[in-house]
């Protein structure tokens, strides 16, 4: 293996990219959500210039894109990979606090529909790219603000699962989505044309981007070279 470290690293990265099968669907939802809001596009571009423009792409700068992080988390909240998540099998009999008995061997899934419930999130049925950014800004500085990160999981947001079985690839997914979105935002003006039926529909358990979505794309002069 000596002398082949770069080749092996490239192969591993390529394998990671192709194994992220939900990335394209999420990115489509991100694009139609972002490019229908001119102010959000402007603010995201400003953040990229201020954060990435100083040091280029690295782990710290990607983590510093907090508005973009909020956009990704909000897109995942609105469009989870499935409305039924966290598939499990009870390894032993479980008795819930209300007395309900889950027999050993029972397959279980958790509904993700509550993530758009207005009782959990204000205006939960509307996309707000600033949602987690604003929560982070308003939070007590002494508290752990990592809970607002795209990669963080909680009972109120488990797009990547939750607990010990949360998706281990979510950090790679975050970096990939951010690098892609940075390149699209800085290099192109995009006009998204949404069908009369809406930008997405539900097919079975999944939120699917409408196949009639169209975009007009124009090259722009980027403020910084990525």
Protein traits:
alpha+beta; heme binding; 226 residues; two-stranded antiparallel sheet; Cytochrome P450; heme; Cyt_P450
Strand-helix topology:
Blueprint (H helix, E strand, L loop, with lengths): L4 H15 L3 H12 L3 H18 L3 H5 L2 H13 L5 E6 L4 E2 L5 E2 L4 E5 L19 H8 L31 H18 E6 L6 E4 L2 E4 L4 E6 L7
Antiparallel strand pairs: 1-4, 2-3, 5-8, 6-7
Helix pairs in contact: 2-5
Q: Would you kindly provide a brief summary of this structure?
A:
With 226 residues, the chain is an alpha+beta fold.
Share in β-strands: 15-25%
Largest sheet: 2 strands, antiparallel
Q: Note the total helix count.
A: 7
Compute the CA-based radius of gyration: 20 Å
Bulk shape: globular
Structural class: alpha+beta
Helix content: 25-40%
SSE order: HHHHHEEEEHHEEEE
Strand order of the largest sheet: 1-4
Distance between the termini: 32 Å
**Mean model confidence by pLDDT:** 88
- Runs in which pLDDT lies below 50 for 5 or more consecutive residues are none
Family: Belongs to the cytochrome P450 family.
GO biological process, one term: mycotoxin biosynthetic process
Protein name: Cytochrome P450
Organism: Penicillium crustosum
